[in-house]
Amino acid sequence: MIFLLVLFNALLLGTSLQGQTCCTAGAPISTSLAINAIDSNMLVVQLEYSFNSVNRLVDDNEVLRNDPRSRTGQNLMLKIDYALNKKIAFSAILPYVNQARESFSQAEVSNGLGDLTLLAQYNFQTKPKTSISFLNKPMNNFGLALGIKVPTGKIFHDDDRGVVLSPDMQSGSGSYDFLIRTFHQKNHFVLKNLSLMNSASYKINTTNQHFGDPQKLAGRQFKFGNELILQTQLFYNLLLQTNFILPDVGLQLRISEANVEQGVLSSNSGGQWLSIPFGLAYFFKQKSTLRVFGELPIWQNLDGLQITSDYRFGIQFRHFLNL
Amino acid sequence: MMKIIAYLVTLLLITGCFACGGDDEGRINDAVETDWLIPSAQVMDGGPGKDGIPSIDNPKFTSTQNVDYLEDTDLVIGMFNGGAVVAYPHPVLDWHEIVNDELGDMSYALTYCPLTGTANAWDRSLSAGSSTFGVSGKLYNNNLMPYDRSTDSYWSQLTMSCVNGDLLGEKINTFPIVETTWKTWKRMFPVSIVLNEDTGFDRDYDRYPYGDYKTNNNRIIFPLSIDDKRLPRKERVLGLIEDYGKKVYSLELFENPKAIHDVIGEKDLLILGSKEDNLILSFENIGLVDFEIDFSNFPIIGRDANDNVLDVKGFVRSGPFAGEQLDQPNAFMGYWFSFGAFHDGIEIYEN
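^ inputs. structure came back:
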């Protein structure tokens, strides 16, 4: 039954931390910052698809009408976790990114592998001994993850005239970025079947000195703004004989600094977003999970005029392999 | 272990399927137009995409006396044709950049680039027929690149020519414009119509969308091919761009209102300006001498030593040249850096 504990923990730690803006290159890597496998000799393979509709034009905190633009982002993400032991684990995330930008006169699409993220996580407390009834056992765990995003993604997608697309339409950011994440997980939160997960993630971005093809676009500098994501989420477990269902709902605050272009802060980027992430997971055959999830923005206070997400949804499959 | 490897390979194949179709699959505009008259590597994608900044194609107007949405310090672009006079305020243009309009027998696209601070009025009659223009979303040297909706060709505002597409190399004809503050405009033309905020788009026209861009000399959003630092980047100048020569005149020259008699090539020019009124006018001189500027009695703008009285439209109201009209050269206001970037080593008028 070890896998059950792993599954449960995986679900808790792997919940979405997706940002609400379209204005980041590539996949939202903060989506899967946490490492799921916490048991030795276990490999967790995750495949996730998400669709982000970016069709809300906001000026500061006012939603505007009649915008001729629409944006969508689709990500297919492969994530592999490996636990060295019960305290130390490693993870790699590789997304495939599809970005689309459309107006009444033109549609442009870019596809490509995104940036590779590598993470190391340390759990300060090992999990309690597992049993079939582990969900009823108290657990109070703290974890810390550090990571780096390596610029493996394409950064010179161009249009049908050979013009390199803007940074937010690229698959990668072209920069080495650094990640830090802490989390706290508590079972038996108020109710026996209720668990609480709190997390904080901070991403420090660096500057891509030559956005786009260095041979074609020398001199353009761009840095995506650093971002902080705070999230709290509640999970309620419903046991169905050997399988079980786990609905979750939470609250997420994302704070992003302005982008920096040519060394100067961009006036129409950065801000604060508040959203409700939610999901429903099904555990089956004691080796796999299937989860559908979504996210709805409820408030934003943006710097200037930005097109931002109006909803996001996705589906996630995980499989656990004993090595 | 083999099972695991097989599993991972399967997942990678699934990932690969997502990529099927390769880059840029799904474009509506599949035509490949890669011939450029300007270095394509210096053409930048601004981010909003084509028509992401919507042009105004059905402009609506308010008469001068009923305008309550402008501050005295707001800049406006003015045009006149016969007795018809129209103004386009920067606070609206900042959000739309192009207005497809008509004035009398003139059919034009008023193009305005917030990043270079330049405006000019383009004749919409092209070799391919009449067209409207839209915002392509691309920039060259931070400057607007309109596209024509007849052939989908891309143009450069400051080269005033087609730089990509079917009309490659075609030059645009322009109509004269004048730029000044709303306060001065009201004095010049108490009776005119003014583009209003009923654009069909929900925008906060009271807010300038680019932060401190107007005054921050360090803030240039995209790389420049030439970064000419002889003047502060954001200093407002009148750029005179003609076949016979090119020169810029800084508004700072006109701390005290004055007339400049200048010669470019073999063309005799009259440059009149007042920093206080935020106005520089330019005319091709027909023989006016020792012109004395006087912006206190619009539409009259001064007289010369022979008592030729000139008005803001270039008409000689009285005097030996009465009834003549002075032509206006192709000249428009803008941030210095834009003229420096487009015209290497362009001459700067100095006292």
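Chain B has two domains: 40-195, 236-348. The radius of gyration of chain B is 23 Å.
thumbs up if we can close this ticket
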